[in-house]
Amino acid sequence: MSMLSSIPMETLIVWGAALQAFLIVLFVWNALLVRDVKAKRMRAIQQQQKELQNKSLAAVKHGLKRPKVMGFVNKVVKKLNVLRTREAEKVIDDLAQAGYRSKEALNIYFFFRFSLPFAFGALAMVWLYVLGMGDLQPMGRMLVAIVAVLIGAYAPKIFVINQAQKRGDALQKALPDALDLMVVCAEAGLSLDMALKRVSKEMMGPNPEMAEELSLTAMELGFLPNRADALANLNKRTNMEGLRAVVGTLQQTERYGTPLAQSLRVLSQEFRTERMLRAEEKAAKLPATLTVPMILFIMPALFIVLLGPAIIRAVAVFPNF
């Protein structure tokens, strides 16, 4: 304390200003820093490759230190004993289609599936009965509480479905480009495994979702005893009509030795035509879609601009009218 009192006030002010300037520069630099999403994705895929290899080789499980929150979630889900049910198998497929494949994701899903109804119901009860918000009849309050519980029960499922739909749309858009690259790799003499790895590397920037799926399929083709299982897993993870056609072509190539490049070229042309037709359909729907926004937002402003001066002059000429 005596040491601080011996320092002049001007010096302390200068040090404080310098520290503040350093923190501001650090904050601005952190906000403007461009993060390498591609490297993060590659690290995630490599980590998943190690997990798949360990699982296939039946390695000894090792204990990992998890955060306390994750440990609590795992404990609650284990007490509920829902991981061995048929519902859990279906949820695993749904989470895989949404891009979540770890066991922790399954535990988190079931934890929120069982805890959110109680949390939403408790919040509704506190809001209605304790705080007295909302001038409702007893039956209306009960209905609001029931609706809150239902929202909490279905919120995790709706979230997973929404994520799966977004991921499916991204995969559908990138499928023709991925097939073109696979055709080039096949004509260059690469095997199916190497072609998938090369295409996944090239697709990492434009479409990380497609790159991740193809990379996982290439890894499974490398170490699974039955190569057909790797292609079937791709079908299960994506659940897309386009990729089912691609998987069928790859399985036919693996089984009968048919030319891979020619089959993929035909599929790529079909998917490009389909994508063009979807774009033309959206363009044809655009005038009808813009009708309501034009009526609500553009027409009132247009009437104000056209009739506003006339109304102002009429009021000025006939003030007592």
From TrEMBL:
Keywords: Cell membrane, Membrane, Transmembrane, Transmembrane helix
Superkingdom as given in the UniProt entry: Bacteria
InterPro entries: T2SS_GspF_dom
Membrane topology reported for the UniProt record: Multi-pass membrane protein
Every Type II secretion system protein GspF domain range: 179-307
Primary location class: membrane
One Gene Ontology cellular component: plasma membrane
TM region positions: 12-33, 110-130, 142-160, 286-312
Coiled-coil portions: none
Subcellular localization: Cell membrane
Official protein name in the record: Type II secretion system protein
Organism: Candidatus Terasakiella magnetica
